[in-house]
Write a structure and sequence with these properties.
The protein contains 15 helices and eight strands. It is an alpha+beta fold. A hairpin with a 5-residue loop joins strand 1 (76-82) and strand 2. Keywords: Membrane, Transmembrane, Transmembrane helix.
Length: 468
């Protein structure tokens, strides 16, 4: 009796698609939420431009679905102190770390930069037309919940008042206020280009879905695109820098930055630049100011995203393959964008940076021929370079750069005499040797004091013995 031949024998590999033994892409909805780490890094820069509101596929949209929004830019741990004004800040703001990244500095290295406003920034600051173009978005003194509705209501209210009583004098528009300085995102930054590419790719897949008559895929793409648009509008923001409100004459705003690795950066600038970049805070000005309105938009986007995930799992095989491939490609591109320097994302043309590091201080992190203590890289030698360039020592104690001990105070006083008296050859002062001598004298003095106490004790015992 022969054994019956089964018609449903399974092979080693899937065959076909969509049936029991074929390829299935039910997990394509999972691809929509993968890539959270790379998207979290780009979330702020991606939502700083109107291009971020384009309807499109974005990997891991749940990164942007947060109940709260950051109120300021991320910062880096470093000691920032004013040379003249003595203001001390324990962190370095986001944008100066892009202008001169401290992560690129080797231990005990030294740099001197001159940063000032560019001519383009000065011309825009004095042009009232530029105030009008940015006033509605960056001026936080006007009461409003979001830019569009308040602007529309103000326009309609003004038009209605003019039509209601033509006998009244025409309403003169209020002069726009000078907005605080802000750093916009570059129009053609890598993230904006990715947003445009993603939008084109999304609608190309949508056109294919229409051609294949896959209504579920069309609805899924529309839902995903709505999520990106709603989240982009709710999170749209602009970095706002702090500005001086007083026009009084103040000293120069030079600052000294000290990293945890012992590197020093001296920045030559005026008080306006120092307030904007270093001593002030970088705040986030959102288009949708109302927290309640923002949370309502985020709640709506969350609901639409859940519907979109369900719809993605019910598309036909070809559309699931196309959407899944799009997510894989976009995840790879956003990961590659994290390798691009941050200066390519932001328009920092309002500032000009010039490297004016003296030649004999440029290689402070390298050893020089000679073998003496001042020829080797050290914290003391780099700190002396900073004192020599600034001509001041007050910032040393304010920032805590030098230990608060007696011998170090003597060394700081010796360094102050060098920069104030400026005798011949003061620039080549042996700072490390002087420090070693002062510390060595203190140690020798303590040892001699202990020996004197011992000798005095022995002599006292002898006197007592003689008395006996």
């Amino acid at each position: 009796m022969s054994s019956p031949q089964g018609d449903s024998d399974e092979g080693w590999w899937p065959e076909g698609k969509d049936h029991q033994n074929g390829w299935r892409l039910d997990i394509v909805s999972l691809l929509a939420v993968i890539g959270e780490s790379s998207m979290a890094e780009h979330s702020q820069a991606m939502t700083a431009s109107w291009i971020g509101c384009l309807p499109r596929i974005i990997p891991a949209p749940q990164v942007l679905l947060k109940p709260t929004r950051p109120t300021r830019m991320p910062h880096t741990t470093a000691s920032v102190v004013g040379v003249k004004n003595g203001i001390q800040v324990p962190t370095l703001n986001y944008f100066p770390n892009i202008v001169h990244p401290i992560e690129d500095l080797a231990p005990f290295s030294f740099r001197v930069y001159r940063i000032r406003h560019s001519r383009h920034a000065l011309s825009q600051h004095n042009d009232p037309r530029s105030w009008r173009s940015v006033n509605s978005r960056h001026n936080t003194t006007l009461p409003r919940h979001n830019g569009f509705f308040t602007t529309a209501s103000n326009f309609l209210r003004g038009t209605w008042l003019r039509r209601a009583d033509p006998e009244k004098a025409p309403i003169i528009a209020a002069q726009p206020l000078k907005p605080p300085p802000h750093v916009p995102a570059k129009t053609l930054s890598p993230l904006n280009l990715l947003s445009i590419f993603s939008c084109v790719l999304t609608w190309a897949i949508f056109a294919v879905s229409l051609y294949n008559r896959d209504a579920i895929a069309c609805l899924a793409l529309i839902a995903i695109s709505l999520v990106s648009t709603i989240v982009g509008y709710a999170s749209l923001w602009s970095p706002q820098l702090m500005k001086r409100t007083s026009g009084a004459v103040v000293p120069e705003g030079d600052v000294v930055i000290r990293t945890r690795e012992g590197a020093f950066i001296v920045v030559k600038c005026d008080e306006n630049v120092a307030r904007e970049l270093y001593t002030g805070t970088e705040e986030c000005t959102y288009l949708v100011h109302s927290v309640r309105a923002y949370r309502a938009l985020i709640g709506l986007a969350t609901f639409i995203l859940m519907v979109a995930v369900v719809l993605l799992g019910n598309c036909n095989f070809n559309q699931q393959a196309a959407i899944g491939s799009a997510y894989i490609v976009l995840n790879g591109l956003y990961w590659a964008a994290s390798l691009v320097p941050k200066k390519e994302f932001w328009d920092l043309k309002m500032y000009e940076r010039e490297d004016i590091t003296p030649d004999d201080c440029r290689d402070a992190d390298c050893a020089r021929p000679g073998g003496e203590p001042d020829d080797l890289p050290s914290f003391t030698r780099t700190m002396w370079y900073a004192i020599r360039v600034t001509g001041e020592v007050g910032w040393v104690s304010t920032s805590g750069a030098a230990p608060r001990t007696r011998e170090w105070m003597r060394w700081v006083q010796a360094a102050e005499r060098q920069v104030k008296e400026r005798k011949q050859g003061w620039e080549t002062w042996k700072a490390v040797r002087e420090k070693d001598l002062l510390i060595g004298q203190t140690e020798r003095g303590e040892e001699e004091g202990e020996k004197e106490k011992v000798v005095d004790g022995e002599e006292g015992e002898g006197v007592v013995g003689e008395g006996r």
